[in-house]
Amino acid sequence: MRFGTPWVRYQHLYPSGELYASSMILTGKSYYRGGNSGKALISFTDCYNRFTKEPRGQEGLYYSGIVRILSGSYYFGARTFQEYNFVYKGGIFYEDSVFNLCRARALAENYDEAARLIEEYKILFPGGRYSAEADKLSAMISGEMSREKKNPLFAGLSSAIIPGSGYFYTGNYRLGFISLFTNGALLFLAYDGYRRENNFQMIFFSVMEFSFYNYSIVGSIRSAQEYNDGSSFRKEV
């Protein structure tokens, strides 16, 4: 059965039915659980636009923000929660929306704004449902802001001098050891071919070593970039 099909059928058969708005929310949830974030967003947005003054309209707008955040669209997720907070101040999902706006700003790496919004949340909802999570998010933001960034150029140059050392610099020890030992083994095999005057062995392993050596440099640069991009922070949030 295709995701969303029963609710879409209801909408087709009962365009004025009393459960039409609910069917739109269920359609969106079904699409999202089926991995189709695009159609889920369309269903939630349509529900909001058609039933703005009803509780299901609030739900549609709120879930639109959730889908955008989970899809990596942090900027538009934040805009959606801002819209909810403006249109439905004190609404069903008001506290949830205010806190998720903090999350969205943190995910977008707008840390100063996220920290400010967390303080506003604490003022608006003293002892609120997300108080513990707000404290944790605040600590995570502070840790991320103070985290030392790695220099991709230095990582690449390090691996150019000693293959694998760029990985060690970024804390990727597994790849560092693999790179170090692989390059070392290939160098030995190329030298062994030279020592035994086996031109095929020498050329074959020299070419392989050249490829692995360059890959080690490029990989170290990427490792530094990945370290700096805060992917682990976003995943935790």
DSSP strand (E) fraction? under 5%
Q: What's the average pLDDT? A: 90
Shape: elongated
Coarse structural class: mainly alpha
- The total strand number stands at 0
What secondary-structure arrangement, pairings included, does this model have?
Elements: H1 5-13, H2 20-33, H3 37-50, H4 55-70, H5 74-87, H6 94-107, H7 111-124, H8 131-146, H9 152-161, H10 165-169, H11 173-195, H12 199-228, H13 231-236
How would you explain this protein's 3D organization?
The structure is a single chain. The protein is mostly helical and 237 residues long. It is built from 13 helices and no strands. The protein is elongated, with a radius of gyration of 26 Å. The longest helix is centred in the last third of the chain and has 30 residues, at 199-228. 36% of the residues are buried. The model has no long low-confidence stretch (mean pLDDT 90).
Overview features:
about 240 residues; mainly alpha
Summary of the model, kept short:
With 237 residues, the chain is mainly alpha-helical. It has helices spanning 5-13, 20-33, 37-50, 55-70, 74-87, 94-107, 111-124, 131-146, 152-161, 165-169, 173-195, 199-228, 231-236. Helix 2 (20-33) packs parallel to helix 4 (55-70) and helix 5 (74-87) packs antiparallel against helix 6.
